[in-house]
Amino acid sequence: MRVIALVLGLLLPFLANAAEKPAPASPTAGSYEEGKQYEIIPGTTKPTPGTKIEVTEFFWYGCGHCFAFEPILEPWAKKLPDTVKFTRSPAMWPQRRPGLPEDLMSLHAKLYYTALATTNLPKLHPIFFEALQKQGKQMIDPKEIGEVVTAAGLDGAKFIATMNSFAVQSQVTQADARQRMAKISGTPELVVGGYYKVSAGKAGGQKEMLEVVDFLVKKIQSGG
């Protein structure tokens, strides 16, 4: 017993010090640094103060991380001031998974731009996420896509016809060029003012992504 007491007596000061030692502080808004919490997109021009700042989310309906981001992103986007414009841009790169078409992400990008063209984006955007992430649908076959749209109370046949239009394909092509310019390598990622890029990996999480974006918006507005 005396040996145990002696050992505890030696250990207690160390345990007390460990308990009192504060946890490492997470970055504050003033401590965000280029290359750590965000990065500058090479070859782009720094935005000037006084201009409307565009924040773009690059996403994919087939991305589970993007689906999880939606409940955080939507309330944040609704509270943005008039000086900030929030947009989305589908990401796309060739798929290498057996049984799926190589242009899978491009096909899903068409879902987004068709919903936008038919003025049904607010209703269909969450439905497409649900179809892929919770209902196990692939959203490749026109019949399946039409059924999902029809189940939402909309014209599935009209949706498919619009999906194959030149206007939608043109927007998909522009989105592809946009992501290449931003050098998007994963989803979701956020681009601020066409100049700064923020990912969950660098920011420290999805909630933290938005905190970094808020910081960058203020940075642009102040001319910093």
Structural account:
The protein is α+β, with helices and mostly antiparallel strands and 224 residues long. 52% of the residues lie in helices and 11% in strands. The chain has nine helices and five strands; from the N terminus they run αββαβαααααββαα. The chain has helices at 2-20, 64-78, 104-117, 121-133, 142-151, 156-163, 166-182, 200-203, 206-222; strands at residues 39-40, 53-59, 84-90, 189-192, 196-199. It has a five-stranded mixed β-sheet with strand order 1-5-4-2-3, sandwiched between helices. β2, α2 (64-78) and β3 (84-90) form a beta-alpha-beta unit. It starts with a helix and ends with a helix.
Q: Which term fits the overall shape?
A: elongated
- Average of per-residue pLDDT values: 89
- Tell me the number of helical segments per DSSP (H or I, 4 or more residues long): 9
Give me the CATH superfamily: Glutaredoxin
User: What name does the CATH topology carry?
Assistant: Glutaredoxin
Structural class: alpha+beta
Give the uncertain stretches in residue-range form: 1-25
Question: What are the secondary-structure elements, in order, as H or E?
Answer: HEEHEHHHHHEEHH
Number of DSSP strand runs: 5
User: Which range does the strand content fall in?
Assistant: 5-15%
CATH secondary-structure class: Alpha Beta
The figure for the number of domains is 1
Q: How helical, in percent, are the residues?
A: 40-55%
Cα-based radius of gyration, to the nearest Å:
23 Å
CATH structural architecture: 3-Layer(aba) Sandwich
The CA-CA distance between the termini, in Å, is: 65 Å
Q: What's the arrangement of strands in the largest beta sheet?
A: 1-5-4-2-3
Q: Let me know the largest β-sheet.
A: 5 strands, mixed
